[in-house]
């Protein structure tokens, strides 16, 4: 991806989430949020490979994926404030963004549950012959949930057009993933499910884009599913109020030297970056302002969409 | 020589920790495991310090609920006494097989030759901004399953006492805590005799109406009783504590004194455990009633994130007072 554009996207996601922290401090958002600070390059690189017809399913840490998939910022801000957004009408909040019109099957706060669902989207594509691909993002820890194994196995057995991106941010909530899996890497599970493996630097937009593009093409042409392990680091807590006692001193500072926003800034230079920063702030100002005009839901809305 | 029990002011969460500490000290076969419960001390802090004190008997697991529950069953069948945590009750649903098809059948199918003395801790309920897959009240599923025991402590003292009873029991017992109550404090008598699983409590005496409740709604029932008292209505509040085994004697005795009954829970109304209590009171105590039975629960909804909606829809002391008022016309 063109570096100016890549910078714009990662910066937008970073600042979107930083704005959320501010909105929460102002009492406009209640409940916990799982921020993707540091992981922005993965959704940006991956979504660049998806077409409108493709399906996307992600984790509760999915603000970046929603933005990269093009969901409207004002509606995202509104949803987070519990307003009657065009997304979930305020009923979902931070971990359940979804939008049919964007092929965004949604976030999910049950770890790993998105894998069988994404496999099902790939199954639909298999039957309707649409050539659409299903991409699912999960965390490293999610690879241990039983439903994930079932979903991967079925995708591999049927050679479904599924791309699984594992965002390996080192931690499963508060526990380092290396203490939770017996193998040296996550991706070595791929062959046993008949999936093509890849390991990439998840902080490098181009590396993400090229690996995902290869996997998407493979899926679209009937080559079957792929499992991509993208290495990255969380620059913030597991959720927004996490005191992170479990993290060694200096770890985040060290990760800051590798994170995607700073990395792309050094590629494009400060002058261009500053210019883009200004545009991003204006876009976010406008979106926050627009979100404040979205009304709050009525209590009836809670039963409106339970049944056809 | 027996040491005297010590009384300390504890939060609900600390009471849960103390009960587990007691278990690890009392039963050499006790082990404690779950996601993030070892070194980090639990996502809410309810296992804080246990790993340090007891070493590898307290350990972290992968995000693998089926393995946590099934592992507890197998270990229990081979002599351990596992205490495991399912972080949110909603996550039971990814591993329900291990509880409903497996744990509940161990004693039954082996004619008692095998037992599964496992304790499963979890927590549930609405809190401001809590999300749709982290807020459900699922106790009716477990109460519906013969072979499982389930209790829902309403305060720190109950949390300590009921968790010890669960751990001492030789059956699979589920103790569902209330996240909303974790920081509430109360005097808790540590040590002392271990209660058996089961038994309800009258937490406030009254003569005009009985309010039966459990978990967090007991506090709401007590607040409702205060409001009603201002208007001269004396409500008796029963904390059911355990849905299985169910202590209907305490409920019927109370209805005998008051002739009116309201049942209040946080779970959805339809198929909620309140319906079971109502049916039993009608069957076994029809002549005790002067009015229909009132039921209070969440209005058959998926849980909305919007805090304004949660507040509007959560059953609370006001809905309990309104239910009592509806009975007053009879
Ligand atoms: C089935 C299930 N079990 C446990 C949880 C609690 N939980 C939420 S996030 C999380 C850690 C997930 O780690 P990982 O998959 O690595 O994703 P990350 O948070 O690092 O993005 C856990 C255990 C859950 N939401 N769902």
From TrEMBL, chain B:
Q: What residue stretches are annotated with the Transketolase-like pyrimidine-binding domain?
A: 10-184
Any GO MF annotation of the entry: magnesium ion binding
Name one matching Pfam family: Transketolase_C
The cofactors named for this UniProt entry are: thiamine diphosphate
Taxonomically, the superkingdom here is Bacteria
User: Per UniProt, which keywords does this protein have?
Assistant: Oxidoreductase, Pyruvate, Thiamine pyrophosphate
Entry coiled-coil feature ranges: none
State the SMART domains in the record. Transket_pyr (SM00861)
User: What protein does this entry describe?
Assistant: Pyruvate/2-oxoglutarate dehydrogenase complex dehydrogenase (E1) component
Q: What is the lineage of its organism?
A: Bacteria, Bacillati, Actinomycetota, Thermoleophilia, Gaiellales
């Amino acid at each position: 991806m063109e570096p100016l554009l890549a910078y714009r996207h990662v910066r937008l996601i970073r600042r979107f989430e930083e704005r959320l922290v501010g909105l929460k401090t102002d009492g406009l958002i209640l409940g916990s949020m799982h921020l993707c600070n540091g992981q922005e390059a993965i959704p940006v690189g991956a979504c660049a490979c998806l077409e409108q017809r493709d399906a996307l399913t992600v984790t509760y840490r999915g603000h970046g994926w929603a933005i990269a998939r093009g969901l409207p910022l004002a509606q995202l801000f509104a949803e987070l404030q519990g307003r009657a957004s065009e997304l979930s009408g305020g009923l979902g909040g931070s971990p359940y963004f979804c939008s049919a019109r964007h092929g965004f099957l949604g976030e999910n706060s049950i770890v790993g549950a998105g894998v069988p669902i994404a496999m099902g989207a790939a199954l639909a594509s298999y039957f309707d012959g649409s050539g659409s691909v299903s991409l699912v993002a999960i965390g490293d820890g999610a690879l241990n949930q039983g439903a994930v194994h079932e979903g991967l196995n079925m995708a591999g057995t049927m050679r479904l057009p599924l791309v699984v991106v594992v965002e390996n941010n080192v931690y499963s909530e508060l526990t380092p993933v290396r203490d939770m899996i017996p193998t040296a890497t996550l991706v070595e599970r791929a062959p046993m499910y008949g999936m093509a493996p890849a390991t990439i630097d998840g902080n490098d937009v181009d590396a993400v884009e090229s690996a995902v593009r290869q996997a998407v093409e493979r899926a679209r042409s009937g080559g079957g599913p792929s499992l991509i392990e993208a290495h990255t680091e969380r620059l913030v807590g597991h959720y927004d109020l996490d005191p992170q006692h479990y993290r060694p001193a200096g770890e985040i500072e060290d990760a800051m030297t590798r994170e995607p926003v700073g990395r792309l800034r050094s590629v494009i230079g400060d002058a261009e970056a500053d210019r883009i920063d200004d545009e991003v702030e204006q876009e976010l100002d406008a979106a926050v302002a627009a979100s404040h005009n979205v009304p709050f839901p009525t209590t009836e809305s809670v039963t409106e969409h339970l049944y056809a | 020589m027996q040491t005297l029990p010590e009384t300390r002011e504890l939060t609900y969460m600390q009471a849960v920790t103390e009960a587990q500490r007691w278990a690890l000290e009392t039963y050499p076969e006790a082990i404690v495991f779950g996601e993030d419960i070892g070194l980090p001390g639990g996502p809410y802090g309810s296992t804080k310090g246990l790993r340090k004190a007891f070493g590898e008997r307290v350990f972290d697991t992968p995000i693998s609920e089926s393995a946590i529950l099934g592992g507890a069953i197998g270990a229990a069948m081979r002599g351990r006494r596992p205490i495991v945590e399912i972080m949110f009750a909603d996550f039971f649903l990814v591993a329900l097989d291990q509880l409903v098809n497996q744990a509940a059948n161990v004693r039954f199918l082996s004619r008692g030759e095998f037992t599964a003395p496992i304790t499963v801790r979890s927590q549930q309920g609405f809190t401001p901004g809590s999300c749709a897959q982290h807020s459900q009240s699922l106790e009716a599923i477990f109460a519906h399953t013969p072979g499982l025991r389930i209790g829902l402590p309403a305060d720190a003292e109950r949390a300590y006492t009921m968790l010890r009873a669960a751990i001492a029991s030789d059956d699979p017992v589920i103790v569902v805590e209330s996240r909303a109550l974790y920081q509430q404090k109360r005097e808790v008598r540590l040590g002392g005799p271990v209660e058996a699983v089961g038994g309800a409590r009258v937490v406030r005496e009254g003569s005009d109406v009985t309010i039966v409740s459990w978990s967090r709604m007991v506090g709401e029932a007590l607040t409702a009783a205060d409001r009603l008292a201002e208007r001269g209505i004396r409500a008796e509040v029963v904390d059911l504590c355990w849905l299985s085994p169910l202590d209907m004697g305490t409920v019927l005795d109370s209805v005998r004194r008051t002739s009116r009954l309201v049942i209040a829970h946080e779970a959805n109304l339809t198929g909620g455990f309140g319906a079971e209590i109502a049916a039993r009171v009608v069957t076994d105590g029809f002549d005790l009633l002067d009015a229909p039975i009132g039921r209070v629960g969440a209005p058959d909804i998926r849980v909305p994130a919007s805090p304004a909606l949660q507040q509007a829809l959560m059953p609370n002391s006001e809905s309990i007072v309104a239910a009592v008022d509806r009975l007053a016309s009879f």
